[in-house]
Design a protein that fits this description.
This protein is of the alpha/beta class. Helices cover 34% and strands 23% of the residues. It has helices at 74-86, 90-107, 132-144, 176-184, 206-216, 229-239, 243-249, 267-276, 284-289, 297-302, 319-334, 342-349, 351-356, 421-433, and strands spanning 2-11, 14-23, 29-34, 43-51, 53-58, 109-116, 147-154, 192-198, 221-225, 257-261, 279-282, 307-309, 373-376, 400-405, 408-412, 415-416. It is globular and about 65 Å long. The model has no long low-confidence stretch (mean pLDDT 96). The protein binds zinc ion. Residues 57, 59, 115, 224, 260, 312 line the site of zinc ion (ZN).
Length: 434
């Protein structure tokens, strides 16, 4: 049993001051009560405490591209990403992902959905342990103290009707059965879950989509959707419909599905996503960095689609920046203010994100919920003088001071339990570029 006394906490979308949170041995919240003074047996948590933040879309290894492919087109960026992927092995993947997951924890993320497709050796031959790469991610999450949903990704072809290119062979299994067999062998751990992903309507043949959805049923299923106009054009040419309509036809749209990006949507696509109960994951800084476009997130929100947040390629790892960018981009797009209020922005980072990653009892501060906490400074140069309820809309990842995952303190006074994370990042990334 552990106790955290929070100076202020975000409970049910409102601020409650001087809150004692009791955490049981299983890492869930056993009691919440208001107590004026921190009791001697409790850990004092200064600042404003939120339920932990969910990073719903990540490719950990893309962090090694930060600042290195800054001017080229999306497709040239993708080639550079393939070159990087070719240099990774289970050992370097573990080292890199540990540092990246630790960076996420420092920024206030308590759970990550890792969209994992780097399965095999260069050339496509499986490792002796066919999940050597996936298990490296699990090891990294354990070491960094973060919760993980490993979204094991099915990747079967190089594009609509295209063979795999040599760098893509590492990503691919022979067919859906081969993917499902390998995925069934993944090692679990107490703070981990296994989910499924279809890479995109480009990388999986139409007839395989419903099989993947069936194999992953009951858990989270994710897919990249309409990030670039080229995907829509190619899908229209091959199948006579949009990628979203194709997912609907193949029975993939459901409340288990999270569609990542969902930028280039027509009105019918938005209606399909809404009526299916699917979630949409926005990755605002990645979409801006790659020049993808601004998604119709205000309209999706108006049509009751749950939105979540991902840092995707990790040009930035900052939950506050993502929700600020989400809101500001929509203001520019709609020429209106307050598309998402702060409560809705925090919901995207917390309960919507946890649900999209299969942690249905997370992302809330209430009895029975996972004891995952993220606390930020109330009085930094950015947040001083700002009303408590609005601080998240001006804060930055560097304001995060305390992070707790399942009752375990992972970040205290702005320091990660693994020590100096910049050094870990340098040691993992520099050798890759030799
Ligand atoms: Zn992605």
């Amino acid at each position: 049993m552990s106790h955290f006394w929070c100076e202020a906490a975000w409970i049910g979308g409102a601020i409650s001051e001087k809150v004692l949170i009791e955490c049981d041995e299983a890492g869930t919240i056993a009691a919440i009560e208001n107590i004026a003074v921190c009791p001697p047996f409790a850990t004092a948590v200064p600042g404003l405490t939120f339920p932990g933040f969910a990073n719903t879309h990540s490719h950990a290894f893309h962090r090694a591209l930060r600042g290195r492919v800054t001017q080229d087109s999306f497709w040239r960026w993708r080639d550079a990403m393939y070159e990087l992927a070719a240099r990774l092995d289970p050992e370097s993947y573990l080292q890199l992902a540990t540092a990246v997951f630790a960076e996420m924890a420092l920024a206030g993320f308590t759970v990550v959905g890792e969209f994992h497709y780097l399965h095999h050796q260069a050339g496509g031959r499986p490792y002796d342990d066919p999940n050597a790469m996936g298990n490296a991610l699990t090891g990294a999450a354990k070491a960094a103290g973060i919760r993980l949903t490993l979204l094991d990704t099915c990747y079967l072809q190089g594009g609509l009707g295209k063979e795999l290119s040599p760098p893509q062979r590492r990503f691919a299994d022979a067919d859906v059965d081969d993917w499902a067999r390998r995925r069934a062998l993944l090692k679990g751990y107490a703070r981990g879950q296994i989910g499924a992903a279809i890479h995109s309507v480009r990388a999986v043949p139409r007839e395989a989509m419903s099989e993947i959805a069936a194999a992953g049923r009951g858990g989270p299923l994710h897919i990249h959707l309409s990030e670039q106009p080229a995907e829509n054009q190619q899908t229209l040419a091959a199948h006579g419909m949009s990628p979203t309509a194709l997912l609907a036809k193949e029975g993939v749209l459901s409340e288990d599905l999270t569609a990542v990006h969902a930028i280039h949507l027509e009105a019918e696509d938005i209606a399909l996503l809404s009526s299916s109960g699917a979630t949409v994951c926005a990755c605002p800084t990645t979409e801006a960095d790659l020049g993808d476009g601004i998604g119709p997130f205000a309209e999706l929100h108006r049509q009751k689609v749950s939105l979540t947040i991902g840092t995707d390629q990790h040009v930035f790892i900052d939950p506050f920046l993502e929700i600020q960018r989400l809101e500001m981009d929509q203001r520019l797009l709609t020429r209106q203010r307050s598309v998402f209020n702060v409560r809705e922005q925090i919901d995207a980072l917390t309960q919507h994100g946890y649900r999209a990653l299969g942690w249905t009892n997370g992302g809330l501060l209430e009895v029975g919920a996972l004891c995952d906490l993220t606390s930020m400074k109330n009085d930094s140069v950015r947040t001083a003088g700002v009303p408590l309820a609005e601080k998240a809309s001006v804060a930055s990842a560097v304001d995060v001071e305390t992070v707790v995952v399942g009752g375990r303190v992972v970040v205290a006074s702005g320091q990660h339990v693994l020590g100096e994370i910049p050094a870990l990042l340098r040691e993992a990334i520099d050798p890759l570029w030799g």
